[in-house]
Amino acid sequence: MKRDKITGTGIPIQGNDIDTDRIIPARFMKCVTFEGLGEYAFYDERFDEKKKTKKHPMNDDKFKGGSILIVNKNFGCGSSREHAPQSLQKYGIKALVGESFAEIFAGNCTVMGIPTVTAPHDAIENLMMVVEEQPDTEIVVDLNQKKVVYSDFCIDIDVPDSFRHSLVKGTWDSTSELLKNKKEVEKTATRLSNIY
Length: 196
Description:
Order of helices and strands: EEHHEHEHEHEEEHHH
Shape: globular
Low-confidence stretches: none
Radius of gyration: 18 Å
CATH architecture: Alpha-Beta Barrel
Largest sheet: 4 strands, antiparallel
CATH superfamily: Aconitase, domain 4
Strand content: 15-25%
Number of domains: 1
Mean pLDDT: 90
CATH class: Alpha Beta
């Protein structure tokens, strides 16, 4: 499935160096599958010890239904756990726009079909400000044009060519690619089994 243009409303999460432990606390990583991880995204920042809600953008009704996360520098740093992007995806996040991302986190997002695109600090600050003031603002992440369009603004974005190519061409889902080419996979497997 191609991921060349993602449209949605935003959720601004301010702060640099937000690591994967903050995105999903380690105690929620005991699952056999990734199903249900969405409810644990930013859990310790969203809820206190008595499970009462704290002030957090993901708890704010004005950002309800938001699917594009807007972040600052070095988002997703820390451990390489795949659970972090899985929790965001299961929460409903379809794309991330930020100043910069930890390399492994960005790679994990890409193989799940979630673009992580970057823009300069001032552009991110403006996007956050507009979304704070007008939370229903439609945001379009256009990987073909390498732009993010919202309100009266259009900002240039950057994304590694290999990530962009796999998302735009729809080859990010390796399982689907293997299934589409099942005969070739079986042929190769037979050839390899004869070698050993």
